[in-house]
Structure formats: structure tokens, C-alpha cells
């Protein structure tokens, strides 16, 4: 289930009393702090609820009956279910706000990298992981709407060409292709100039869809390069997941969580992270491109792809960021027992600062 932080989702706690809502809120908070099952006595000692342990215990039992809490195998205490977490995030969680001192610190760190998009992505994942103490993940932007700044073609060996696709915003895509004809440097230079006259300033999606009528008349070059471009336009100007950068940082933070202390859970997590296209789908599924708000995906189990029914569930908090007119995604991956308010504040704050940092560099 994916929850948006932009509005409350009515219905999850509609039938609960104010006391039940408060107890559920406090159980989630204490469980996040301690990683241990929560009992009525611990709840009474930690929070000034004004109720007896018997009243708290009965309320927790009622919440268990409604599916918001559950017993563990080894304790009389209770822990939140996925439904309990969802209700907490959607309706009971404190407002998510990035602290001013952290905002100033992050802005200073990111501003120094505003001219280097690759470094910006790498450092953003590191900073997010460090502050959240979770796994920080940054996906490079989709290039469908990226505007071609320049196409360069560089001979690398006999019959092999390096195509360099430079996109506004600082992104570069390269691919090596084989050409069967002899390369002629003078003709190649003139051809590259003509190609840029026809294609520069268009989005990659426009080029992919309309390159045939735009450059077909140039296909008479005796090197066969234009025909190669026409044949391989889907590769040259594509937006396939395996061509995007997925930057991780903070794996030790994740593996230090008690949920991943076992070899099986750690192995499932690493296996998930090794599947780049799957991570992209998880991070971007249902994230609204223009909202600027984080979405929370609660209770995804790596066994959904790995086949291990005993693995620990994870949660994902993700938000979009913009570089020029290109949208990427930034977020954290952690156990379901994460501090969601903190994660949402950091992810939304980082997304905003990444977008502002890059936009300022282009206005300067």
C-alpha cells in the first residue's frame, strides 16, 4: 500500500475511539524507539497517558482485535501490524518538518555540487543515509523529456564509434556501436554538425519518434552512420531502466537494524538491491511527479521476488526531485519499524533542496 503525505486517508481509524487512537500512536512510537514488543506497563511509564495499566492493556487488546496490533511469539507485549503503521502514517503521525539547522547544512553541502549532477546524486544519497540512519537511494532522472544539447560521434577503433548524447542538465549517455564502412574524419565532422543542426534542442522522446523524417535525407553518407542511427535510435535515445543510475548509500545502517541481523534477511535485502530495475519500480511506483510530497510504501517483503516467506518486510519513503525539466526520485529504504515522520521530513527536504540547488545554478 502506498500512502501520500499530502492528505489524510480517511477510514483507517474512523471506527477507533480517541483513546484507541492515542494508544496506537504511542505503541508505534515506543516500538520504533525500542524495537521490542510493547506492554501496557512500559507504555504507562514512558508516556503520561493518565490511564491505568489495565485500561491500557484492554485498549491494546481491542486494537489487536481490529488488526492494528499483534502479539509476538516470545512476549506478552504487542507490536504494530502493517495496518497499524499505515494508520499511523496516514492519520496519527506528527507533522514532518526538516529542522532549520539541518536544512541550512544540507543546502550548503548540495550547493557546492550544483554544477556536477553525478556528484550531486552521489552526495545526496550519502547525506540522506547518514541523517536517516537508513538506506539512502537516489535515482537519476528519466531522460524522456531531456533536451538534447549535443550529439558527438568519436571513433574509438577501426569500425567502432562512441556516441555521446549530452542532455541539458548535465547528463551524458554513451554507447559504442559498430559500423561496417571505413571512417572518414572530414566527412564525420561535417555529418556531426548537420545532425546537431537537425536534432539539438529536441527532447530524446521527440528524436526517437521523429528521427526518420528529420535525418533520412542524410543517410546517403558512404560511412553508413546515419543509417546506423536510424536503425539504433531506440538504443541511442532510450529511457530504459538499465541505463539509469541507482545510487545507494548506508547499507551498514540497514544491516545494523535488528530486523536484518539474521543471515537470511540480510541476504534477501542484498539480493533485492542487486536488481536495479526492480528497485526503480519500487521507488517510483505511484510517486506523483509534480506533487513534491513523499509517498510511503509499507510492508513490502523481499520474498515477493525472492520466494522466502520468512524474510522481514521493508518500507520505502520516496519523493520526486527535478533537475532542469527532468524528474528523478530520492528516498530511503528501511524496516517497517522506522521513524516515518523523520524519514518523510528528510526525503521531502532533500528533494526540495536538490531541485532548488540545480535551478539556482542555471539562473546564475
Fold and architecture overview:
This protein is of the alpha+beta class and 364 residues long. It folds into three domains: 7-92, Arc Repressor Mutant, subunit A (Orthogonal Bundle); 100-142 and 245-363, 2-Layer Sandwich (Beta-Lactamase), CATH 3.30.450.40; 148-238, Enolase-like, domain 1 (2-Layer Sandwich). The chain has helices at residues 18-34, 40-46, 53-65, 82-92, 100-111, 117-132, 185-199, 204-215, 225-231, 233-236, 251-255, 263-274, 276-284, 303-306, 340-363, and strands at 2-4, 69-71, 78-80, 135-139, 148-157, 160-167, 171-178, 246-249, 295-300, 314-323, 326-335. The longest helix has 24 residues, at 340-363. The radius of gyration is 26 Å and the shape is elongated. Mean pLDDT is 85; it is low at 4-9 and 360-364.
Secondary-structure topology with pairs:
Blueprint: E1 2-4, H1 18-34, H2 40-46, H3 53-65, E2 69-71, E3 78-80, H4 82-92, H5 100-111, H6 117-132, E4 135-139, E5 148-157, E6 160-167, E7 171-178, H7 185-199, H8 204-215, H9 225-231, H10 233-236, E8 246-249, H11 251-255, H12 263-274, H13 276-284, E9 295-300, H14 303-306, E10 314-323, E11 326-335, H15 340-363
Antiparallel strand pairs: 1-9, 2-3, 4-8, 4-11, 5-6, 6-7, 9-10, 10-11
Helix pairs in contact: 1-3, 1-4, 2-3, 5-15, 6-15
Helix content: 40-55%
pLDDT < 50 stretches: 4-9, 360-364
* CATH homology group of the largest domain: GAF domain
Shape: elongated
Task: State the CATH class of the largest domain.
Answer: Alpha Beta
CATH architecture label of the largest domain: 2-Layer Sandwich
The secondary-structure class comes to alpha+beta
Total helical segments = 15
Strand order of the largest sheet: 1-9-10-11-4-8
- Kindly report the CATH topology of the largest domain: Beta-Lactamase
Radius of gyration: 26 Å
Arithmetic mean of pLDDT: 85
- The separation of the N and C termini measures 41 Å
Amino acid at each position: 500500500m502506498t500512502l501520500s503525505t499530502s492528505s489524510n486517508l480517511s477510514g483507517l481509524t474512523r471506527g477507533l475511539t480517541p483513546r484507541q487512537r492515542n494508544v496506537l500512536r504511542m505503541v508505534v512510537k515506543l516500538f520504533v524507539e525500542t524495537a521490542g514488543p510493547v506492554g501496557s506497563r512500559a507504555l504507562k511509564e514512558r508516556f503520561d497517558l493518565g490511564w491505568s495499566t489495565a485500561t491500557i492493556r484492554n485498549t491494546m487488546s481491542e486494537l489487536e482485535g481490529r488488526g492494528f496490533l499483534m502479539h509476538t511469539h516470545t512476549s506478552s507485549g504487542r507490536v504494530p501490524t502493517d495496518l497499524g503503521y499505515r494508520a499511523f502514517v496516514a492519520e496519527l503521525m506528527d507533522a514532518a518538518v526538516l529542522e532549520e539547522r539541518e536544512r541550512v547544512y544540507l543546502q550548503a553541502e548540495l550547493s557546492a555540487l550544483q554544477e556536477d549532477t553525478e556528484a550531486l546524486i552521489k552526495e545526496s544519497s550519502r547525506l540522506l543515509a547518514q541523517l536517516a540512519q537508513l538506506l539512502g537511494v537516489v535515482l537519476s532522472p528519466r531522460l524522456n523529456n531531456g533536451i538534447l544539447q549535443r550529439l558527438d560521434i568519436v571513433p574509438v577503433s577501426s569500425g567502432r564509434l562512441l556516441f555521446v548524447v549530452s542532455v541539458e542538465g548535465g547528463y551524458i549517455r554513451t554507447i559504442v556501436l559498430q559500423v561496417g564502412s571505413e571512417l572518414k574524419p572530414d566527412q564525420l565532422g561535417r555529418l556531426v554538425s548537420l545532425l546537431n543542426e537537425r536534432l539539438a534542442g529536441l527532447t530524446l522522446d521527440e528524436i526517437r519518434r521523429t528521427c526518420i523524417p528529420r535525418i533520412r535525407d542524410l543517410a546517403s553518407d558512404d560511412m553508413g552512420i546515419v543509417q546506423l542511427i536510424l536503425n539504433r535510435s531506440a538504443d541511442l535515445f532510450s529511457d530504459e531502466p538499465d541505463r539509469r543510475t541507482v545510487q545507494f548509500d548506508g547499507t551498514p545502517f540497514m544491516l545494523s537494524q535488528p530486523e536484518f541481523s539474521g543471515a537470511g534477511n540480510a541476504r534477501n535485502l542484498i539480493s533485492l538491491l542487486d536488481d536495479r530495475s526492480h528497485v526503480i519500480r519500487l521507488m517510483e511506483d505511484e510517486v506523483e511527479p509534480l506533487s513534491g510530497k513523499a509517498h510511503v510504501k509499507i510492508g513490502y517483503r523481499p520474498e515477493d521476488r525472492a520466494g522466502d516467506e520468512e524474510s522481514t518486510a521493508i518500507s520505502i519513503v520516496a519523493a520526486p526531485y527535478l533537475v532542469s525539466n527532468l524528474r528523478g526520485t530520492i528516498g530511503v529504504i528501511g524496516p517497517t519499524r522506522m521513524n516515518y515522520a523523520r524519514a518523510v521530513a528528510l526525503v521531502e527536504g532533500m528533494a526540495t533542496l536538490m531541485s532548488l540547488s540545480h535551478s539556482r545554478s542555471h539562473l546564475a
